[in-house]
Amino acid sequence: MAENKRDYYEVLGLSKGASEDEIKKAYRQMAKKYHPDMNPGDKDAEAKFKEVNEAYAVLSDPDKKAKYDQYGHAAFDPSSGFGEGFGDFGFDFSDIFSSFFGGGRSSSRWNAAVRGDDIAVRISLTFEEAVFGVKKEISYQKVQKCSECGGEGAAKGTSAKKCTKCGGTGQVKVQQRTPLGMMQTTRTCDACRGRGKIIETPCKKCRGTGYEKATKKLEVSIPAGIDDGQRVVLREKGSDGENGGRAGDLIIVVNVRKHDIFERDGSDVYCEVPITFAEAALGAEIDIPTLEGKMKYTIPEGTQSGTVFTLRQKGIQNVNYRTRGNLYVTVVVEVPKNLNAEQKSLLSKFANSCGEKNYAKREKFFKKLFKGGKTPG
User: Fold this and answer.
1) Quick check: 195 and 112 in contact, CB under 8 A?
2) What mean pLDDT do residues 227-255 have?
3) CA dist., res. 265 & res. 315, Å (int)
4) Which of 38, 124, 133, 205 is the most exposed place for a label (fewest CB within 10 A)?
């Protein structure tokens, strides 16, 4: 088993024969690098931290160091015949880390003010509701102070008492012998579990926690112009904080359903309007849809299919400003189908009456296309 271990000097990044100060300095650096508090959830870091502690426990002890320098890992392997197992170190390295670097889990204050959790609620809006704004009633669950004890955790007619062991601080100081000498560390008080107070008669409703789950209903104003995926944040409408901390926020995430006619891009709106061949050729006053309803619009004669007309300030109001986007209307010429004999005859006469003008653009197109025997790149 000993042969699988790395050399202790290598673990600490030292050369054999390193001085006491060099060993201590290397340990501080490596302990800080691999401590679990600095690498939460990292199993490799946790294993290396244990390895660093094991190396330091040997090299910081003059007797153990001398044996290790002479026999290596075999000096602490019971099966090797030397008769001395490595055993338990007898101290908590996490407390040493706390003393070195002024923190870590053991020094956290459970009775410090803690902000409440944010709560996210998703709502679905129609296209029109998003464009013009709407009021919606929402229902959600939050954690709040107990309605029975007001968040104290103690039954009615009683009150929590200050913990006598920690004096209400939630922490106690402990002196401990370590390889570096006597050190004083701070730990969470085991009598009050860091709360600084003891509840002798807990509230029956919240079982002494001081908090309960509650369902809330709230009417929310959704602003005009909100878009799909945007959020409305209501400050301090989330779960209540602890120990005087402020409440979290209520975050409303908006989902906007698609419209049958309109498409949205930011504050601009797009739609297509069908027109007849006659309207396109002769020009006409047609009905076009807008966000506020139908309106009359005059298209000029000779309008081609796919022409886009821009209606300024007929789009959607920007949710953060007073400006509005534009409405872009694309006209699509509908080719008549199922013509009777008379209609076909009239169209043929019309085509013949146009003469070469009717084909001028097409002939020009093909001349460009095959100019020099090559198609344009």
Assistant:
1) no
2) 93
3) 10
4) 124
Question: Does 360 fall in a domain?
Answer: yes
Mean local confidence (pLDDT), 27-48: 80
At 91, list the tokens.
Answer: 């101290």
Q: Residue 176 carries which side chain, given as an amino acid letter?
A: Q
Where residue 233 sits, what CATH number does that domain have? Answer: 2.10.230.10
Do residues 44 and 35 make contact, with C-beta atoms less than 8 angstroms apart? no
* Structure confidence by residue, pLDDT tens digits, 95-110: 444 444 444 433 345 5
> What pLDDT band is residue 356 in, cutting at 50, 70 and 90?
low
Q: Which residue has the tokens 């062991």?
A: 165
DSSP characters for 98-156?
Answer: HHHHT-SGGG--TTS-BPPPPEEEEEEE-HHHHHH-EEEEEEEEEEEE-TTTTTS-BPT
Question: How far apart, in whole angstroms, are the C-alpha atoms of residue 87 and residue 92?
Answer: 14
The candidate with the shortest Cα–Cα distance to 289, out of 313, 270, 267, 317, is 270
Task: Residue 306: give its domain's CATH number.
Answer: 2.60.260.20
Cα–Cα distances in angstroms (integers) from residue 162 to residues 4, 17, 165, 339, 375, in the given order:
52, 53, 9, 95, 91
State the total domains in the chain. 3
Highest mean pLDDT among 67-71, 309-313, 343-347: 309-313
By the 10 Å C-beta count (0-12 exposed, 13-18 middle, 19+ buried), 294 is classed as exposed
- Tens-digit pLDDT profile for residues 283-333: 999 999 999 999 999 999 999 999 999 999 999 999 888 889 999 999 999
- Of 86, 105, 84, residue with least CA distance to 95: 105
- Distances in Å between the Cα of 37 and the Cα atoms of 106, 107, 109, 240 are 10, 11, 15, 28
Higher local confidence (pLDDT), 91 or 160? 160
CATH at 44:
1.10.287.110
Q: Which amino acid is at 273?
A: V
- The tokens describing 229, both together, are 């995926």
Q: Tokens standing for 307?
A: 């022409």
55 in any annotated domain:
yes
Asked whether residue 296 falls in the same domain as residue 246, the answer is: no
Band (77; pLDDT cuts 50, 70, 90): low
Backbone phi, psi, residue 74, to 5°: -60, -25
- What percentage of the chain reaches a pLDDT higher than 70? 82
